[in-house]
Amino acid sequence: MKKKTVSVLLAAVMALGTLAGCGNSANRQQPAETPAEAPAETPAEQPAETPAEAPAEQPAETPAETTWSGTLKVAAFEGGYGADMWTQVVDAFEASHPGVTVELTVDKKIEDVITPSMKAGDYPDVIHCATGREAGLTETLTKENGLLPLTDVMEMTVPGESVKVKDKIVPGFLDTLATNPYGDGVTYYAPMFYSPCGLFYNAGLLEEKGWTVPTTWDEMWELGEKAKAENISLFTYPTAGYFDAFMFAALCSSGGSEFFDRCMTYEDGVWESAEVRKVFDIVAKLAEYTEPTTVANANNESFTKNQQLILDNKAIFCPNGTWLPAEMAEAPRADGFKWGFTALPAVNAGGAGSSFCWFEQMWIPAAAQNQDLAKEFVAYMYSDEAAKIFAASNAIQPITGISDSLEGDNKLFYSVYDSGATAVMGGFAATAPVEGANIKDALCTTVDSIVSGDKTVDDWVAECETVSDKYRAALQ
Is the pLDDT at 411 greater than 90, yes or no? Predict the structure, then answer.
């Protein structure tokens, strides 16, 4: 997720509302070119036509518009935005591409649905499945060099429009390890729905109590004491996996973008640095203010119980992404509840707050059978038509100017960078498979053990450094 990291590039990203191989060409049908008329046999006494004259007499053929036919298999993860938007986008794609049929599979556990067929050699042509998920499907294919490069897709014209794909994507999103996982400038993941991540809270509660949103960690601890006095916990989290966005933002805040790159590329000794220790110490102190039932419910079955804590005024802050309100739309809530959202306080005194900009990815397996049509579908994802459908379900794409159409809660969430917060993007560099080690587990899942008291910060540092050493040896 980025060799050239991000918070630097995000000066450009602020434009969005100040955030602000071989393909199978059988599915792409070009009208047959009219063969040049065979020249009549030249009589011996008549001089043969010179090669230079023939082309001058033949008018240049105007390339006909590409037409498409065939079946495209698309698999998509059903996240908090729901499945209906995918059905609508597929319908619109088929309508704009007569002759194409899309076989759509959408599931909350898409990896479980498609992996058995993939092991048998039957791959979807397009997959929407982000990095950072527990099943690790995207990372596995990345480590096995099982992805098709998409750099040429970025140079394609958006279907139905006159602009290239790359020119519709907000600057910065194509310059991270989250799109170029090997750090070689080649795009393998197409950036899809993006979400500023930070701390969600009940703004109504803070207003009622006369409490202000902390801008420093000292102010956070002060608020923690005030809340404790009223039997309210300062903090909860859905699952420890959600700490990826938290930790990435905090690491960048602690040591800057170059330091963040060093962490993401497994530099020797980086996890033993003072910058990392600052961040780990913050999490350890936050553990003291974490709602007691959090760890027990921090799993895929019960995580919404933790999210419910902030709706019930039993905890104040919960790290998450902008899909949270939709995910909890039908949940009960305290009187006067209204969503609040803030960046993480700066790790260093005088620094700016930070918000990790997480985004989902779409990609094409190298084993896909209909690669050309798959590329056409990916390019279509950046059309105004597709973007409008997705946005109606609050799935916001990193398309230039899209923030102008946002309102309500989304306006609040996507304007976090307007208030001076540093935007952070990227993630761990791709490596060859590392048996028996998982860097995300070392960094994030360990949080459960810190909160429960089963591990210390020293244990955490040692574990991250040990796993990082193994990843560095496998770095591609």
Answer: no
pLDDT-derived band at 140, boundaries 50, 70, 90? very high
Q: How far apart, in Å, are the Cα atoms of 425 and each of 74, 176, 191, 334, 445?
A: 27, 7, 12, 34, 20
If we measure between CA atoms, which residue out of 322, 330, 344, 331 comes closest to residue 408?
A: 322
Question: Where is pLDDT greater, at 26 or 402?
Answer: 402
The boundaries of the domain holding residue 101 are 6-21+69-196+358-424
**Structure-token match 């970025």, residue found:** 154
CB 197 within 8 A of CB 321: yes
pLDDT of res. 49: 43
Q: Which of 21, 53, 27 is nearest to 39 (CA)?
A: 53
Percent of the chain scored above 70 by pLDDT? Answer: 86
Model pTM score: 0.68
Domain total for the chain?
A: 2
Domain end, chosen from 424, 445, 461, is at 424
Residues 367 and 349 grouped into a single domain = no
The pLDDT, as a whole number, for residue 476 is: 61
What average pLDDT does this structure show over 120-139? Answer: 93
Write out 7-49 in H/E/C secondary structure.
HHHHHHHCCCCCCCCCCCHHHEECCCCCCCCCCCCCCCCCCCC
Q: pLDDT digits over 370-380, tens only?
A: 999 999 999 99
Same domain, 349 and 238: yes
Whether 41 is in a domain gets the answer no
The Cα–Cα gap between 174 and 159 comes to 20
Angstrom CA distances, 243 to 198, 264, 289, 439, 457, stand at 10, 15, 16, 13, 15
List the CATH number of the domain containing 393. 3.40.190.10
Kindly provide the b/e burial profile for residues 376-408, where b requires at least 16 CB atoms within 10 angstroms of the residue's own CB: bbbbbbbbebbbebbbebbbbbbbeebbeebee
For 445-464, what is each residue's pLDDT tens digit? 999 999 999 999 999 999 99
Reading the block at residue 267, the tokens are: 């530099």
